[in-house]
Amino acid sequence: MRVLVTGGAGYIGSHTVLHLVGAGHEVVVVDDFSNAKPTVVGRLEELAGRHIPVHAFDLADAEKLDVLLAQERVQAVVHFAGYKAVGESVAQPLDYYRNNLGATIALLRAMQRHRIRPLVFSSSATVYGPTPRVPMTEDLPTSATNPYGWTKVMIEQMLRDLTAAEPQWRVALLRYFNPVGAHPSGRIGEDPSDVPNNLMPYVAQVAVGRRGELSVFGDDYDTPDGTGVRDYIHVDDLAAGHVAALEWITTHDRPLSVWNLGTGRGTSVLELVRAFEQASGRTIPYRVVGRRAGDIASSYADPSLAEAELGWRATRTVHDMCADTWRWQQANPEGYPS
Ligand code: UD1
After folding, report:
1. Domains within the chain, CATH numbers bracketed
2. Catalytic site includes residue 148
């Protein structure tokens, strides 16, 4: 298939581009590079061993989108593009609603005009809201605690309404747990533009000496060691999940599908720190500080639906996630060159 990947220069997008190419699909990327560096493209082409057409514009530009969908003869879309920093979304909610919802509506309208039906949407386990039951199953009610999370809930709702009105759509909502790790080559990985908000990139920057110590946000949660428990998933497993979902929706007649992409295993902050120390041979100094607003104690997937329907499951271990993150961080201590 000829697949358009929106946000294909970003962290999860770039890894998914490689997996799509590896599975024999033709990939076209659209990215406005508001949170990605253009140098990722050369590295992707080097790893893919082929040219990857990249269009640099904002998805909200309907005219450019029309030209792209027609010229590139796009048959399916994997939609990653969006802002994703929780704290920033609280400070600038309108930017988040305008960008994430606006781009998605523009994309859906363009897909309607060109009669492109398969869409894989990048959702998040954040849609399970502040008090989820764990392990989380896809039938739990959705809600959010911040504008970023609400954009995911709202886009899911738009896609429910759209597929109910027009059942010819083939949509997959993929709810990611905590994506970490990097391509084993160390050539592509996560490159936060500012101080990392998320645990793994922060730990990696401490290990490489860019930051002094990790702040552990609370050790008084109702978890085995008191620190937050999350379901970390290797970005290459996640990318493989997108390929499996795309292939499923294009061979089955269901307008809307929802799948968790996680490992089903929880790891605490301190367990992750220890695993990273082992994989890197470096000590990670840390200090326990207060809880971060909006955090929950435990989040992990019930990934059995994706396994039963897609035949997909995550295979990479926490050690693999740390070793691959470390290889990327060591080779690119300052991230991608600008
Ligand atoms: C966060 C977002 C979530 C988003 C996800 C992926 C919040 C509240 N949630 O999830 O909406 O979908 O990222 O981008 O921001 N931790 C530390 N020190 C740090 C960083 C994190 O102790 O410097 C702890 C956290 O308290 C948590 C765990 O590490 O227990 C994982 O945190 P993080 O990587 O930010 O992911 P989430 O909070 O699960």
Report:
1. 2-180+232-264+301-314 (3.40.50.720)
2. yes
